[in-house]
Amino acid sequence: MELSQRGRLMPASPIRRLTPLADAAKARGTQVYHLNIGQPDIPTPPEMLDALRNFREPVLAYGPSSGLAETRAAMAGYLQDLGWPIAPSEVLVTEGGSEAILFAMNAICDTGDEILVFEPFYTNYSGFACMAGVTLKAVETRVEDGYHLPAREVIEAAIGPKTRAILYSSPGNPTGTVFTPAEVAMLVDLAVKHDLYVIGDEAYREFAYDGRTATGVLGVASEAGAMDRAILIDSISKRFSACGARIGFLVTQNAGVLDAALRFGQARLCPPTLEQYAAVAGYGLLQKYVPPMIEEYRRRRDTVMAGLRRIPGAVCAVPEGAFYVQPRLPVGDADAFAQFLLNDFSVDGRTVMVAPGNGFYATPGKGREEIRIAYVLKEADLDVAMGLLVRAVETWNARRADAT
Amino acid sequence: MELSQRGRLMPASPIRRLTPLADAAKARGTQVYHLNIGQPDIPTPPEMLDALRNFREPVLAYGPSSGLAETRAAMAGYLQDLGWPIAPSEVLVTEGGSEAILFAMNAICDTGDEILVFEPFYTNYSGFACMAGVTLKAVETRVEDGYHLPAREVIEAAIGPKTRAILYSSPGNPTGTVFTPAEVAMLVDLAVKHDLYVIGDEAYREFAYDGRTATGVLGVASEAGAMDRAILIDSISKRFSACGARIGFLVTQNAGVLDAALRFGQARLCPPTLEQYAAVAGYGLLQKYVPPMIEEYRRRRDTVMAGLRRIPGAVCAVPEGAFYVQPRLPVGDADAFAQFLLNDFSVDGRTVMVAPGNGFYATPGKGREEIRIAYVLKEADLDVAMGLLVRAVETWNARRADAT
Asked: What ipTM does the predicted assembly reach?
């Protein structure tokens, strides 16, 4: 009984594939600080949970394939407040941002087509590309540059006859990089010049620090007269700390893409009904809920950076947004190091879990010395976790020195 | 800006694509009886809605990609009670049965591979096949045979070098047909002989009437020593009248398929968290909730059949299960007739919506005179709706006669 090629090639999530090792550590009584996964500990707004509890229909029924009218209107209103001329009919509610990515890829790519990405990139782009038969053509960004874009000609050289789109996340997962207006404008301009779509994954839009504002693909495309090329991927998961709701959005003014995505959506019938009401409640709380949360994450970022600075040889720019940082650590093989953390390391019965950085690259061998840290724990816990990481690097390198 | 080939070819749902016409009819003040979509009016068990309301965690967090442990255990326990030796680790929770179908296709097929289906079949198989680049090879079943399977040699003749699986639903959507043990055994035997997977979509398992019991693919495969070939698709949508929950299952003892499906699942992170608790509550209510519901549907089936018998020339066997019937009506073009119902027909401000039958076929031209009726309304409403349908056929045929 053979599997398909894509069934064999489909990558395991680098964020989740070490989970069995973490489970084993926990079974041994070790406390594991999870810095591997972007699951915030910030409470979901109680008003959103109330919206779930206040559901009073007798039947938990299918909703429209495109999402509930009130949810589409809430998302469109939010985007309008950002200054972008989006109608509710241009918003498709999806099963998380995940499904929006898959729908976008399927709508514009056939098997063998290429999408240009910047590595390191959100690892699940690889998974969706594998499912869709799409090749990710990766342009490298470097930790030394704070993972900002390389020169235009470097990006342009990667665009070929099979390239259909440029896909990026900003604020970036796993980089924490917030692309400047000039960077986003360059990507949109390249899309116009080479007849491509440009897909902006902006699930972390509000997560920008030190006075920054994230530049939106719809805003730039609108100014450039290129709205038919722009596809926005969005989600309530991080904005409202509601990852388990599985509510995302695909937003575009390209009628063909929207129609194709809707037909993909009809096949799976509808996104979860109940959580769409919670999403509506969430968008009404934006001004109250989000700013204090961002300030909390800014403090956490500073805690993580203070820890990283205690690791001699660690390379990392201060992250500008999202809640990730992808440092290069002097550990040789970061994948082996991440396994060591779970298998062979603990201090006072505690250890830390991180995501190996190579899983965020398409190019084999890249990111070998990098890890991704998600700063989703309280400052006090983060402080302990970073202390464990500092000790672990010392222990790991002492062992490596002994072995040679 | 071009779409992909699959973006262009992706079929609109025949169940949902006439919705704009229905919306227009409603805007004109016409009451529309929805027989087009399998959205039951049966209340979701209040205990399941309570389970949703009783969620007390402060964070609506990601769950495991494979589903919550308690949900997998509840589903495995349910299958064990049916006599099938399934462990919780062999159950993957999916975003509805829909996602389970897509994962199964992706795990075993690459672009250009074929899956054998029996037409008329659940229309969304076409959509998922389009997304996955899979060709559906359709073997015809006939309304005159109650949509039971043709002879073994007819099915065998459709199996070719690219065939990877046989996919069927029983109790059947849109046919209402419950395959006999001999029919399921034949499919499993063909799978063994030709080295195929056999995918049983059993979302309507309990919906079998007149003393019938639906034969399960896992039971037959277990007896045949072919468990590594069997993939079960299941869902809580119909069993617990919880379509909007989007909780389904992929169940298999084939470790490779399970592992590939889990990796597809990791890319989309997790199914909705909250509704998985509702599912656990549901499985505890099976004996209390399901039998009276099935008796209610049996009465509705009889109401629909009584109506169909009033249409001269209608051809239809008494459905044995599920809550659909796919009759052939003497209306020429059933798609035009379905549009007529919404655009140009009403009695006392009321009309009825049905799904054109051709959307349930892969072969162009087939099912042209058929419609699918979902008997998901109360008997009194169904009675009115069927009366409207009887009148509509008369009116439609009188108009057609006038036009010639």
From this structure: 0.95
